[in-house]
Task: structure prediction
Amino acid sequence: MKILGCFKVVPDLDLIVEEDWNKKNQSYVDTGYAKLVWNCFDEGALEMMLRLSDLSEGLNVVYKLSALTIGRQKTEGFLKTLYALGFSEGVRICVETEEDILFSPEMVSEGIANYVKKVEEQDVIITGIQSSDGSNKKTPYLLAEKLEWPCITQVVGMEPMDEDHLQVTAQVPGGYMVRQVKTPCVLAVGNAPCAYLRIPTLKDKMKLGKRPVTQLMPEELGMVEAGESVQLIGLNPIDRKRNTVIIEGDSPEEKARHLYEKYLKGRLSML
Amino acid sequence: MRYHFVVNGYTEDVQSQMEEQKGFAQKYLAGMEQKEAIIYCRNSEDVQKIQAHHAKEAVFIKSKEYVPEHILQVLCSQAGTEELYIFGSDDSGMELAVRMAARLLGSSVTEAEKLYLPVKGQENSGKNHGISVSKMVYANHMEGIFAMKRGPYCISLARGGEWQELTPGMFCVKEEMICENQADHILSQKFYPEASEDSLGHAKVILAAGRGVKNKENMTVIDETAKCLGAEVAVSRPAAMNAWKPMNRLIGVSGAMVGPEICITAGVSGAAAFYAGIEKSKFIAAINTDENAPIMKMADVAVVDDFLPVLEELKKLVTTKNPMVISYTICK
Amino acid sequence: MAIISREQIVEGLVKILGEEQVITDEQVLKESSLDRYRKYEQVCEVYTQPIPAAVVYVKDTQEVADVLAFANENEINVVPRTGHSAIEGGLETALKDSVVIDGSTMNKVIKVDEYNMQVTCQCGVPLQELDDMLRERGYTTGHSPQSKPLAQIGGLVATRSIGQFSTLYGGIEDMIVGMEAVFPNGKICRIKNVPRRAAGPDIRHIICGNEGAICFITEVTLKLFKWQPENNRYIGYKLDDEHMKLGFDCLREVMVEGYRPSFARLYDAADAQQHFSAWLEEGKAILIWMAEGPANITPAMEEGIKKLMSKHPELEEVDPALIEKWYSGLNWGPEEIAQEKEEIRATQNIGITTEVSGSWDNIYEIYKTACDRILEEVPDMTLMGGHSSHSYINGTNMYFVYYYNIVDCAPEEEINKYHDRINQIICEQVIKYGGSIVHHHGLGKARAKYVTQEYGSSYYMLKTLKQAFDPNGIMNMGTLIPLRK
Result:
């Protein structure tokens, strides 16, 4: 079974300085200096693929794991890490200005769909529901529509069955749904319980991580023509500071009354 | 342009979903014509039994199991190109909004916070983009405004928006449609209910005690007040290390990281390690005798006083003025 | 070890402090039996050290004196503690029925003396709160270690802590003025606050760095400095990892020419990728300086450093804005600690640091040979690298950073299989080339076993100090001087 994990490499947003969040009239935030990390939702998806492969040991099913990302040269290090962990194919769709794909889920899903249609067929595509920066929450759903595959969302686990089926666990309101699913399908990963990807040893990196990454251009995959149906027209800073109000009063009881009447009563009744 | 609510009737909290939709429409869609709601569900009774509605008429799409592909098929066959569809804030609402727009070549935005209608007379001026919607991007660090270019316009709502009380009475059923198809990609499925969740992580109100509570006896005042407020009790690390509460009540980096609607701290100084644990709270009220304690700058409101008389008074206020809570409180 | 029973210890403590201040809750005791040196055991909630008899919170110096006198009389091992951020085993309760004396409740800032530029505080004042408060008034202690969000003044002085801006402000030993400490027999000693003295040996250094093995620090006066970050200038260069030797030489040149930047750093390629992966190519090391001080000094320092570096064709200048942004985003704080725990649980991958120092003529050998040996001898390594972050006229430090996967190993075995093995290699290489095995985390219990090699003939002085001040052997036994097995 061929499984493609699609992931995004994102800046660590915790490292962005306050002034960059507070700039007005920008169409994207300067995150170019922040350390790069796996988009956490995708990281869970990639670890899930490895766990599936671990579970298949001794079973009569072989998983060929591939990974695809869209981004600049620096993201290839992440693909090589996946090589070191046992992925057999790593693909980068080369985009040098990442702002272009930030709010472009149509373009991103078009590129992935065309890769699967035209370059390398797959049985399953698994990816995170959203990226931390763009937060579009659209790519897996658009992908399912473009490929006309069914989609299962909020996936938290996969277990092997046979060459054409997977057992998929998904979070649903009030619990978990375990389904036996026929491929092909798109799996969207939300809050996976295994949110962290394992880490390859330096020895494995030396041994397996040196293979070149397959590079494709957006033009080859019809990404340039894919238009977005929604367009970002403004980006506003959010004022998160709590401007503390000191509650005045002559006695603790009076302060308590102010606190309750003005601030707590309404909020409590909303719950 | 006209709008429809699209309701997920499979969930337990269908009422609050509808209340949120109504709240959103009231705030952002004033003057727009409302059309029938579209409700997908196992059974129309599941929704009608709440005896309340937010649209006069409704179309019911019924399917024994929730399979998004089936719902979409019926949903799309019904849709008009220049209409606005407002989905709930759950996963299903998000998925269906995106996929419906994709099928009908319309546009979609997930987790919409606000909506702006085109200014009258400028709809086609080129400058104005028609409907635009705001949502949180960059992991909640920024608000993005998105112009929706093509209809149908499908949006799913952000969680925790404003809500409006529903109108009593049932929906008038305009049409009922039944999905007969079997999902051929699903061989079998089994539901496992989730084991009980940790109480701190999901608490709506938290009362957190710190070192300023001074001793274990004073913790009973915290416990009693919490009971009246319907709050969970939590402690900072110094309080936990004094064994005033067990470790599973610890908030902060070595304990739970919480985001309740209301967080009240009593005698907490506000060390960084603690504050990180409550930073995501919607509203923080701090009570501390030291006006220079760091917490006093991080809270929304602060009371500079001893927590004991403040909480004693608060307890009385809540007990007498909140009949909803009084029914199960056993305060002195 | 104690000559009275566990119950009698608790009874005695309650008599002195009252029940409120004597904690015997099992979970609290367990967590108080170790520190971040046994990070993996902590994450797995496996406790291998003797569980203390009690944790006591002290409110004033007299209480400390009373508890110590009681312990001294009954030969009870005590472990002084404030912020609980130690990472070298200094807070482990190595003996049965120990008592942890927690000074974090002594958290008052006693006096901010802006005219004499010094601040006096009790041992439990959190550094973060102190410095935030001072910065609002335009001052700083100049002390900014990574443990800042957790550490408190007593512990910082006890472990000879150092901060990121040490090249300008020095370590904590350069910042302390006077102190108050309590010795095991209950004797309270105060050293007055004066700018300098030549009245015999500097006895402050019996207190500073004692790691709780000689006395309990109750009060500290620190120097104040003007806080003027608006004048900061940043300078950065990248270089190939093979040129690390040149990197150390560049750090040296800047010091030798007489510049005092507030930080001076050299990251090797492996460590650099942990911070600068957004724009720094793999295989590149990086040099960074920050000039801090009055507005007319910092541009001059920037110019001077750049002129020195221009002579090296191997260096390529980095946009200072990237360094500045990195510096402003440097927020190792509570969130990171919480996340680290989750990550270790999920990935069984753990990161540790060991800090040493060396002279200019041996630091490169220490760095290179230790890294090579670890990669050769220790299994399952996932990252091996490091940086120099504190420079002096005569040498610099090396902060080894290493990560490994914990494979087929029970939590209680981890220390032996990986952590201590790596520590041992580093210490061996440092001693071989003539550096110090501890730059700023303290010897703790983790590295106490190398103390005789570290001290050589001067071990006599350390041992004599310990015997003289703590003849009954009750102060944090196993720290500084290893327990006899």
